[in-house]
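Quick start: load a record and inspect it. Here is Lipolytic enzyme:
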Amino acid sequence: MSSSAYLRYVALGDSHTEGLGDGDDARGLRGWADRLAEQVARHSPGLHYANLAVRGRKAGQVRAEQLGPALALRPDLATVVAGVNDVLRPSCDLDEVAGHVEAMFAALTAQGATVATLMFPDVGRITPLARPIGHRVLALNARVREAADRHGVVVAETAAHAAATDPRLWSADRLHAGPLGHARIAAAVAQALGLPGSDDTWALPLPVAGTDISAWRAVGAELRWAGTFLGPWIGRRLRGRSSGDGRQAKRPALLPVAVSVGDTSPTV
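Running the structure step on this input writes:
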């Protein structure tokens, strides 16, 4: 389908697609899916967009809670990004996780939607304390890529470039992209979809940083990160809680996308 024909875009996923790291709950979250919707709308003024993503959701929950409503909206463009919350758990069946993602690919493409997904970078290169699960992320990427091939799903190879793990693209929690990271993800998906005006500049490295960080400062930064973000995350897991408890999708209905001048989010 030509990108100019996209009229109904639905995003499924977790906190990354909800937009954490790009704005906040008080001012509103933007995120790569909102940014992508705006890019599509520039060439398809009739675009309506829904974002069903909810933070903390594992792949099986995304499938159980979001796939049915997504199919009911009959999208001609959909994005499916899920699985990171699974690989962060102590135990994870990667085949099961990929199976949930593939089931969403299958259902959406069978209904005629163009579906896109993206690859996750090696989290161990973003924060050293995450190195033990880095291999899981890459293994999940391989399974999702194979599933995408089987169903004709468009894949944005966002993990294949060194820039993907540049700390400047990530928010302070190192789990979610920051505004610049979300902008680059949106640009990568736009290029994968072949949207007019898209290119590969999203993959270019950022300018070299001017100062080196000493080993002691690096250790201190890791300890501060662990206390501020890792500790509370572990605490929620031990209590059986999730950051998404009680949360609803931020944009559950298809609404028109208003393309504003400058760096603003899609508005109703």
